[in-house]
Amino acid sequence: MQNTSEIPHLVERHQDDLIGLADRVWGMPETLYAEWQSCAEHAAMLRAKGFRITENVAGLPTAVMGEAGNGGPVIAILGEYDALPGLSQVAGIDYRQEVEAGGNGHGCGHNLLGSAAMLAACAVKDWLEATGTPGRVRYYGCPAEEGGAAKTFMVRDGAFDDVDAAITWHPSCFTRVDDPLALANTRMDFTFTGRAAHAAASPHLGRSALDAVELMSVGVNYMREHMVQDARIHYAYLDAGGKAPNVVQSTARVRYSIRALKLADMLALVERVRKVAEGAALMTETTVEARVFTAVSNHLENLTMDRAMQAALDELGGVPFDEEDRAYARRIQATLSAQDIATEWAIVAREPEPGVELCDWVVPMRPGGEVLIGSTDVGDVTWKVPTTEVLVATCAIGTPFHSWQLTAQGKSGIAHKGMVHAAKAMGRVAQMLLADPALLAEAKAEHARRLEKTPYICPLPADLPAPILPRP
């Protein structure tokens, strides 16, 4: 289908500035709720592009929102810019070399995610101004997707109350409309308190918090054969009970990540894990305090929005990679296993194709391939407003996310071309929703029908504050 929209040309008008933003954010990798510089860079670009700025969105100091347009419906385009710990990596090479030993890195492509979302918003802003179409476009700069659940806090605290629809994207190995699948997830801390004692002379006087954590682990592991098949439970010791084995450990803390495909199943699992913790405390004569750290919901599908995104992708076609991009992708693929590459092809229901390093086509909607599901705070936005998410190729096929290989490709021509393509697709869908009231009404009606069947329950306690970090 020939593309007749003005949006791609408007995206190209701003692409150099936003590619520069993506590269700057790549070079200042900041993790959840510590994205001070990255947020400041996004706010500065929004000002430079003429948006009306709201900082400290929903009380989150590293969240920012820019709005343009007047009246009409509000279309949100969601961006992120948080990095991951331990994935520092020199850009543009095909071997492991850290920029900073043990440092952070953009191993999930969020430097691109936020910049492309803002690029799309810039194009829609220009289109609104040029055509006089009533409506507003908002760029939401959202922190802490990697475990911090910022969007869930933003939904709970009203940041999307007047939004009509939302659009987002994520870097990927393939270009396609994302499947509406994400695991609901609660991250919860269990702090056990016992009584210290001399482990040799008077062990009978001690009550070990470390024993309680270990018994809790045993209890949770016995739950695994009695859970729904899509459930996942993981844990990490935050306080392992001290460093001296000749002391009965008086405190220990463990964080559990409890996931399931349906929010109701996840919430039920949370209560079962609580009971296991209480049982471990009872067995060891310790006490336990359970506290939610963060939580996110599964995705609520909106076929109307997803079909609009598929139409936009079909208009655009695939990402226009060149031979230099393919050569770098081949070098990256040489560092991957055959299983890495085959796994990505299986997701789109295709066998690996030798000599195909990059996805320069559009995958059909709902390809029906192997399902590999994680968790994201975008899920809670999908319950608040009709939402679609597109995946766009920004790396060599087979690249594992949360890896040094992904970080290495984050400033490459592959990444830049992919993020610009994502902006064109998102901007086009926003234009469709603003120009066609019937399409937006259909998306909202579908959303209402799904909510009527399964009402939204925010997985966060109403009084839980976001785990905001102090400004350094």
What is the H/E order? HHEEEHEHEEEHEEHEHHHHEHHH
Number of strands: 11
Tally of contiguous helical segments: 13
- Overall spatial form: globular
**Uncertain regions spanning at least 5 consecutive residues:** none
Overall radius of gyration: 23 Å
Strand adjacency order, main sheet? 1-2-4-3-5-11-6
From the N-terminal CA to the C-terminal CA, the straight-line distance is 51 Å
Largest sheet report: 7 strands, mixed
Relative strand content: 15-25%
Percent of residues in helices: 25-40%
Oligomer: single chain
The chain-level mean pLDDT equals 96
Give the class from helix and strand content and strand pairing: alpha/beta
Structure write-up:
- The model has no long low-confidence stretch (mean pLDDT 96).
- Helices cover 39% and strands 17% of the residues.
- The protein is of the alpha/beta class and 472 residues long.
- The longest helix is centred in the C-terminal third of the chain and has 23 residues, at 413-435.
